[in-house]
Specification:
The complex is a heterodimer. In chain A, the strands form 3 sheets. In chain A, strands 2, 5, 6, 10, 11 and 12 form a 6-stranded mixed sheet that branches. Chain A has a 4-stranded antiparallel sheet with strand order 3-9-8-7, with no helix packed on it. Chain A has a two-stranded antiparallel sheet with strand order 1-4. Chain A is mainly β. Classes of the chains: A mainly beta, B mainly beta.
């Protein structure tokens, strides 16, 4: 069965702190894709990153970095030097080859960055 | 480049009524998928359309239906509304609709059922 778990419901940090959002997934497929999306108060989900199951290289994009570990079925997201504009709900998602945009989303982590 | 447009943004209905939501994808995108977001169940996949054909469907009752037109615009319909149908309905478009594709989401249609 496919499942994405984001155990952290809500996290509060002070600006400039580093924060890591956890994501654990379950799938039986060998070919799958992992995503992170950001949902600001306006509602739309904004794409942040995609990773396929064969690429375990960590990625860094500015203040954002992602750690993909197949051995622990985790795809964690770190924001370095957080800013107030990072406040949002962050979703981790899983899709499987041939499943036509049927994404399995985690329950989301609400990040509050205080000035 | 215009993003995904959903209409209406907000609507209020009463139990037993039906509702139709519209989604205009990004120009050139042929795949449209729909998701329901509620505080209790989170984001759940409803269905996906590509070139007017439904290719995938989530675990929702038959009261939830959709269609896609030749210009890739999509509509979803919910009949015999129930209180539990109150949710944010998100539409997403992508180029091919494969599992690896990035989804571009609209701002959603927030439905309240009284």
């Amino acid at each position: 069965a496919q499942k994405v778990t984001q155990a952290q419901t809500e996290i509060s940090v002070v600006e400039k702190e580093d924060v890591t959002l956890d994501c654990v997934y379950e799938t039986r497929d060998t070919t799958y894709y992992l995503f992170w999306y950001k949902q600001p108060p306006s509602g739309e989900l904004v794409f942040l990153i995609r990773r396929n199951s064969f690429d375990e290289q960590n990625e860094i994009s500015g203040r954002y970095s992602w750690n993909f570990q197949k051995s622990t079925s985790s795809f964690n997201f770190t924001i370095t030097a957080s800013q107030v504009v990072d406040s949002a709900v962050y979703f981790c998602a899983l899709s499987e080859e041939g499943n036509f945009n049927k994404f399995y989303f985690g329950s989301g982590t609400k990040l509050n960055v205080k000035p | 480049k215009a993003g995904v447009t959903q209409t209406p943004r907000y609507l209020i209905k009463t139990r037993g009524q039906q509702v139709t939501l519209s989604c205009s994808p990004i120009s050139g995108h042929r795949s449209v998928s729909w998701y329901q977001q509620t505080p209790g169940q989170g984001l759940q996949f409803l269905f996906e359309y590509f070139s007017e054909t439904q290719r995938n469907k989530g675990n929702f009752p038959g009261r939830f239906s959709g269609r896609q037109f030749s210009n890739s615009r999509s509509e979803m319909n919910v009949s015999t509304l129930e209180l539990g149908d109150s949710a944010l309905y998100l539409c997403a478009s992508s180029t091919s609709g494969g599992a690896s594709g990035e989804l571009f989401f609209g701002e959603g249609s927030r439905l309240t059922v009284l």
